[in-house]
Amino acid sequence: MSGKLFRLEKILTALSKSGTPFRQITPAQVLVVGFAGIILIGTLLLSLPVASSSAMPTGFVDAFFTATSAVCVTGLVAVDTGTYWSLFGQLVILSLIQIGGLGFMALSTMVALFFGRKIGLRSRILIQESLGQLSLEGMVRLILAVLAVTLFFEGIGCAILGTYFSREFGLAKGMYYGLFHSISAFCNAGFDLFGGFKNLTDYAASPLVLITISLLLIFGGLGFSVIMDLFHLRRHRHLSLHSRLVLIITSILLIVGTGVFLLLEHNNPHTLGPKSFGEKLLNAWFGAASPRTAGFNTVALGQLRQATLFFVIILMFIGASPGSTGGGIKTTTFGIAVTSLWGLITGKDSLVVFKRTLPIIDSIKAFCVIFAALILITAVTFILTLTENAGFLPLLFEVTSAFGTVGLTTGITTSLSSVGKLILACTMFAGRLGPLTLATALSIRHRGPEAVHYPEERVGIG
Length: 462
Prior knowledge:
By secondary structure, the chain is an all-alpha fold. Helix content is about 65%, strand content about 0%.
């Protein structure tokens, strides 16, 4: 799979340098084409008879949906991962999760470095775009750091979970389960192998499993630059503004989310009601952490109260942080939008965060991201209300889960029509890349400065 990634990146780079129309291809377009190519490869592999446990070929829609969900690290599934797919199929899914979580450009760069190839300027720009970095400085070092961080967290997670599952499934199967769920958690994918669409409901009373997985998905959702900033904190003695904003908003969402989940579900007989207070608190914590694009669940989401479902939708919409393995509009986008709104209400004429002034374009971009996401979710939900036989709230939940690359579901995914699955797969794709990145890739490039500058005039707003 890594060899195919490297060849794909070489083909895209060669096309962009040739005398064809591809010479004008942008970094955003390379990312779109690259992710689409990986999804196509995954679809073909999952369609093979050897990929299913029944040794029968899988239909295009289900294979495409699964491949898209894996590459986009979402976790929505049309068939049960643990029982439908063979070991080969599960390993394909695991490879797609790892590629999707880190980005195909990051992995292809790692392969190039392994073979001693030089990383050119264009590749560095693509890495910057795929990892959401603000500067081109140190891209190769960042890739090596990403690899080290990934191996560190996934290795620790595999050791802890593998040891635990080995007591239940035996050493070989237990370590395999530990590896699969560690990668799935750190990459915020939410795929599981326990069968019967149960996810982690059998481990709702296991602090070791839930705390390990929740920490993996939280660190995976912080972003690699934030993790590296924390790692070098003793040397630099301060965190960047980006890292501080990410950590504060993440902490607020986790604390508030745990409290709200516990308040709304503590007496629900179908979810937290029968559990002890310790188990309620543990599952409320997990219920607040998982919607941040992870997709694991310990309670039946279809049994949650409507208010809880709506609150989870909000958490899924916000999602993880830039440059991470998660999706959503991102924590910093949410933070800048809230700060901008508060500044407008209080009459401030500049955007100030932690005694630092941000350019006004950041505020505009944040609101554009939110608006584009709302348009996409609204449009897809509207279409699905016409094509699917399901209630509005479950459909809105499903669409937001797909956009935020979360993977949580109230249980309607398998009953969606083929058209519904294809639409939802496209939503996952747009959510993984980001609506603005996708729009930029599909738009006609602006060439040069505007020839005419028109006079300014104001209009009434609000």
